[in-house]
Amino acid sequence: TWGDWMQTDHHAVDIWRRRLTVSPVSQAYLENAQQTVRLAIERYKAHPLLIGYNFINHGGDSYIFHDHFDRVTDYSPAARDAFQKMMQKKYGQIDKLNQAWASDFKSWDQVMPAVPDYHAKVNLHPAWQDFTAFKLQQFSQTSTEMFDRIVDRLDPDRPVVHYVAYTGPVEYMFQKVTRDPAKWILCDGGGEHHTMDRIANFAKHYGFARRGESHDVPPADIIRMKGLLTNMLRYGSEQTAFALVWNSLPSIHLSHYPKNEKLQASMNWWSKAMAAVGQMPPTQDVSTDVAVILSWEDQFYRTLAWRWYAMPGEWARTNLIACGIANPTWVSAISPKTAWDQAKVLLAPDDATIWSEQMVNHVKQFVISGKHLVVLGNSGQYSLDGSDDFQWLNQLGAKMDVQQIPAIPVNQQVGGKTYQINATLAATPREGFKPDLQTPAMVRWTFGKGTVTWLLADTGQTSDMAELNLADNGLTALLKQQLLANGATLQVQSSDPRVSAVVLKSGKKQYLLVSYYISMRKPENYQPVNTSITLPSLRSNNWQLVNMIDTQPAVELSEDNHGQHALKLHLQPGDCLLYELIP
Q: Is the pLDDT of residue 125 over 60?
C-alpha cells in the first residue's frame, strides 16, 4: 500500500509508530489497497473458517488523519491537489473563494488548506470549515464507501467490520453505509476506554452491531477487561460481541505466554464473565429519559483533533453517573430523528460550545413538542457563521443580553434546598421578554409546549477527561434536581456517585450491571468504596439477586432508611459485577 506520504501542517512527513504514514487521498495507495482487498477476498471467500472482513485498523494505526491537539494532517501534495479540485467545484471562480475566505489567491493551484490558530478558543473561519468538509469527505470515501462496495460485489453475505472507533467523528461514516445493518459491525481495540460508551450508543442509533476488544496485548490487565465488559453491556447485550487481541510476536510469547500470572487471572475472570453473558438472552438497557448533546463541531473547530481519546461529552458522562444516569442517549446534529425522539429531557453540556443550524433546529423541535432542555454554561455560545452571542436563544424564544463574568459564588434555592454554584454568565432579559424564573444562577422560560432551563455556570471542564463533582449541593446536584423535575426517572440509585448501575431487560428477565469504572486511569489513584444500590422501581422487598459471575462477592441485602432492600457492596477500583434480578 505504498503511496504519497501524509504531511502535517508543519510540512513534515507524518510518522506514526516510527513509520511513514500514507495519505488517504494518494491514488497509488487507493489503487493498491483496493486491488489487495479484491485479491484477498477472491482467495479466501470460499474458506469455511472465514468469518468476515476487518478494515482500517483504528484509522490511526494505518491512516485517516492522525490529528493531535497541536498538529493537523493532511497537507501532502496529493491532499492539496484533491482539496483544490473540491474548492473549484464548490466555488467555481477563484474570486468567489477569495471573497469567502478573505484571501487573494491568483489561481487555483495557489490555494492551500487552512492552518488553524492553535491559541484560539475556536476556529470557525470559512477556510477551516472547507478543509474540515474535505477531510470528512475523504474519511468516508476511503473507508466505508470504498471497502464496503468491494465486499458487496465479491462476498455480500459476510459481515464487514470497521475498526475506527477512536478516529473521531465516526458517525459521519455511518451515514454512508449501504449494507444491511445486521452485516455491518463497529469494532475497536480499546473497548475499555471512556469514550466507548458514546460510540456504542451512536452505533445503536443506526442498528449496527458493536464489538469491543481489549486494548492490552496480551490482555493481562483484569481492570481493563472489566472496563470492556462495562462499556459493552451498558447499552444492552443485543447486537454486542466481544473479542480479545493477542500479540503474535515471538518475544511476547516467550515472555508472557503462559507464564504471566496476571494474564492467567484475567483470563480466568474473562472466561467466567463470557459464560455469564452467554447465559443472558439479548438484553436492552432501560431508558433513563435523558439525552445529551455531543457536538461534532466542537471536535472539528475547538479541539481540532481527530485522534484517540478526543471526544466531547466527558464531563456529562462522568457527572451523569453521579446523578444515577449511567446510560443516557447521545445525540448529535446528524443523529437519526429516532434517537432524538427517545428522551424527555435534553442536556446541553458546556463542551457543546458550537451549535450548527441543524443542531438548533433539532433542539427547537425537541422543546416545541413538549419536552425539556437543560443548558449548562457556555453551551451553544458559537455558531458556524463565527458569531459568539448564543444565537440559539432567539431561536428558542428568549430575548436576553448575555455577558461573561468572573466566577461568582451563588446560592440557588430550589424545592427547599440550597445549591452552591459559581455563576460565570449574567443573562439580562430584554424588554418584552419575561422568563418564568430569573435568578443569578438560573433562567427558565416556556417555549412551545416545553421549557428551557439555563444554568448559568460553566463546569470549566471541556477536555476529553473530567473530574467528578462530589458535592451534594453543587452544580451536579442542581443538574440532577432539574433533570428529575423535568421528567427523568432513575431505574437504579447508588449511594456513592462513583459507582454506576444499570438495569438490562429481555422480556420478563432483568439483570443488574454495577461498575466502579475507572477507564484507562491508574487504579492506585483510586480508593475502594462502599456503596448501597437500590432500585426505586421495585418498591416491595420481594426480590433477590443471583450472581452471574461466581468470583463476585456474596450478595448482601439489607434495608435502607426507607425500609427498602438495598445491595451493600465493597468495590475495588475497576470492579464490574453482573447479577440476575429476580422480583
A: yes
Q: Are strands 493-494 and 529-534 parallel, antiparallel or unpaired?
A: antiparallel
Beta carbons of 148 and 73 less than 8 angstroms apart? no
- Cell triple for residue 176? 454512508
Contacts of 557 (CB under 8 A, 6+ apart): 544, 545, 565, 566, 567, 568
CA distance to 3, 57, 277, 565, per residue, from 68 (Å): 22, 18, 37, 49
pLDDT at 549 over 90: yes
Residue 253 pLDDT class (50, 70, 90 cuts): confident
Q: What is the pTM for the complete model shown?
A: 0.95
Q: CA dihedral in degrees (295, 297, 303, 305; nearest 10)?
A: 110
Q: Contact 159/185 with Cβ under 8 angstroms?
A: yes
- pLDDT at 60 > cutoff 50: no
In order of 321, 370, 529, the CA distances from 571 in angstroms are 16, 41, 5
How far does the chain reach from its first CA to its final CA, in angstroms? 58
3-class DSSP assignment, residue 445: strand
CA distance 346 to 278: 34
Q: Using CB atoms within 10 A of its CB, is residue 12 exposed (0-12), middle (13-18) or buried (19+)? A: exposed
Measured in residues, the chain has a length of: 583
Q: Output the pLDDT for position 87.
A: 98
Residue 573 grid cell? 477500583
Q: Determine phi and psi for 233, rounding to 5 degrees.
A: -90, -15
Question: Which residues, 6 or more positions from 513, have their beta carbon under 8 angstroms from its beta carbon?
Answer: 230, 233, 234, 501, 502, 503, 504, 576, 577, 578
Closest CA to 165 of 129, 209, 131: 209
Task: Enter the DSSP assignment of 71.
Answer: B
Residue 249: exposed, middle, or buried by beta-carbon count in 10 A (0-12, 13-18, 19+)? exposed
